[in-house]
Amino acid sequence: MDVLGSGHEQVVFCSDPASGLRAVIAIYSTALGPALGGTRFYPYPSEEAAVADALALSKAMAYKNSLAGLDLGGGKAVVIGDPQTAKTEPLLRAYGRFVESLGGRYLTACDVGTTNADLDVVARETRFAHGRSETYGGCGDSSVLTAFGVFQGMRAAAQHRWGKPSLAGRTVAVAGVGKVGGWLVDRLVEEGADVVVTDVDAGAVERVLARHPGVDAVADTATLVRTPADVYAPCALGGALDDETVAVLDAEIICGGANNQLAHPGIAEQLVRRGMLYAPDYLVNAGGVIQVEDERHGSSALIPGGGGGFSFERAQAKAERIFDTTLRVLRAADEQGISPAAAADRLAEERMASVGRLATIRVPARGW
């Protein structure tokens, strides 16, 4: 693995044998500001797999934060281990010490395997832990706004494909109905869509069906991708769109909350050839980072307009702009004859280059 050739600014390996901490913090870019990205706690099969995930996720975070219009760079941390058995207070606090040692270059938050309560523990050792519980003045669970943003992106894709920003009467297949997928189903049912779901966790499906008896469920993702639908929404782990899945997928629009949905870059062109409209994942699922950024914005006197506390309404108003940004990306893809994934990358890179250039104009230090 060519870590030095990956384009990352910094990759930090964290080890504390006494607590069992083994972690990797990857900072892809600080061109727009400190690198924000969650902490993923996962039983990786090898250190190489953990590093690869950290590198891919941190780059995606840089692009996500750029397209969302945030003054934030991109980073990600991964902790190697089973969160059900390895997560302890000493481990989380040791991790917090490593985050603090970076002096604000990296801002951490929740991700797969970590919770708001975990970030409260991490924050006992660092000033740079966000997405904390409401008890401690944090923004709480960010899955609500993540789902809201995906819904806005889906509406924009519907506008682009069918000329109307509505999912009413459309069939939407949702793969993964945990937090984000579950909230997304709520939005879709409220909109009047016909929803089909699946999840490896039978309990998650049962909870959705209890709230919405009219929702249909299928046994597994292999069945779901073959089920005729207007929209396919991958909302579980990454790599959901691989060669085999795209070959059998029966949907016009793909728009979901999972990160890094494309198993490899060539998938974007495959979707174009099959006539499927892909709303880039890091564009539409940015509601969570928008919420975390508002927590930071509202609690920091160092940031213009800060100091008033987190506002869900303000964060939701920002997340609503995902609709306009998605339309902009899809239209740019058509105009330039490229895939939506390539169009999103270009817009993100342009902002990182143009706004990031301003850092060369020296001003008195104000801190991050």
UniProtKB/TrEMBL annotation:
Q: Show the active-site residues.
A: K76 (proton donor/acceptor)
- Chain ranges of the Glutamate/phenylalanine/leucine/valine/L-tryptophan dehydrogenase C-terminal domain: 140-360
InterPro entries in UniProt: Aminoacid_DH-like_N_sf (IPR046346), Glu/Leu/Phe/Val/Trp_DH (IPR006095), Glu/Leu/Phe/Val/Trp_DH_C (IPR006096), Glu/Leu/Phe/Val/Trp_DH_dimer (IPR006097), Glu/Leu/Phe/Val_DH_AS (IPR033524), Glu/Phe/Leu/Val/Trp_DH_bac/arc (IPR016211), NAD(P)-bd_dom_sf (IPR036291)
What is any one GO biological process for this UniProt entry? Answer: amino acid metabolic process
Provide any one GO MF term from the record. nucleotide binding
Keywords, in A-Z order? NAD, Nucleotide-binding, Oxidoreductase
What's the name of the protein? Valine dehydrogenase (NAD+)
List the lineage, top down.
Bacteria, Bacillati, Actinomycetota, Actinomycetes, Geodermatophilales
